[in-house]
């Protein structure tokens, strides 16, 4: 594996849909509140159109960023980094600090657990990433083995 090998794993489509859905619910509440303010204050409806337009641009931008720019897991020849995962444990580390990587199912959630030499660990739920769980686990092992050699 070359010293420049980088593997980015993006967010899984079902998780993306939940995040965008939550944004849309918040946007609907904001539009409702702004509508009430506009009606009660006798303001111009242009304010409502502006808020709605900004909200639509926001959902498009957020969807684009989550789908194409955000790497939930990044594996490099030097180490790994995990983002947007709540109970990840250690969010980033170097391969030289890693004891091993194993499959686990805490709370019946399929995960890859990267165990560090100092007893800490990184837990990555494989359902959060847009990749086959076995392929992802093999890639983690491949990066780990390449760093050890």
Oligomer: single chain
What is the CA-based Rg, rounded?
A: 21 Å
Number of strands: 7
User: Percent helix among the residues?
Assistant: 40-55%
Percentage of residues in DSSP E strands: 15-25%
- Distance N terminus to C terminus? 10 Å
Kindly report the spatial arrangement of strands forming the biggest sheet.
1-2-3-4
Gross geometry: elongated
Catalogue the unreliable spans.
Answer: none
What is the H/E order?
EHHEEEEEEH
Quick one: biggest sheet? 4 strands, antiparallel
**Which class do the helix and strand fractions yield?**
alpha+beta
What is the count of DSSP helices, taking H or I runs of 4+ residues?
A: 3
Q: Would you tell me the overall average pLDDT?
A: 93
């Amino acid at each position: 594996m070359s010293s420049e090998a980088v593997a980015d794993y993006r967010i899984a489509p079902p998780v993306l849909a939940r995040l965008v859905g939550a944004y849309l619910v918040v946007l609907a509440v904001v539009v409702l509140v702004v509508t009430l303010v506009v009606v009660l204050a006798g303001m111009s409806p242009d304010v409502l159109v502006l808020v709605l337009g900004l909200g639509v641009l926001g959902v498009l931008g957020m969807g684009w960023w989550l789908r194409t720019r955000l790497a939930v897991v990044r594996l490099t020849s030097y180490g790994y980094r995990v983002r947007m995962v709540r109970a990840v444990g250690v969010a980033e580390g170097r391969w030289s600090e890693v004891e091993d990587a194993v499959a686990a199912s805490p709370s019946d959630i399929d995960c890859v657990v990267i165990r560090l030499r100092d007893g800490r660990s990184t837990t990555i739920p494989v359902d959060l990433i847009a990749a086959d769980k076995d392929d992802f686990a093999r890639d983690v092992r491949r990066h780990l083995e390449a760093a050890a050699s």
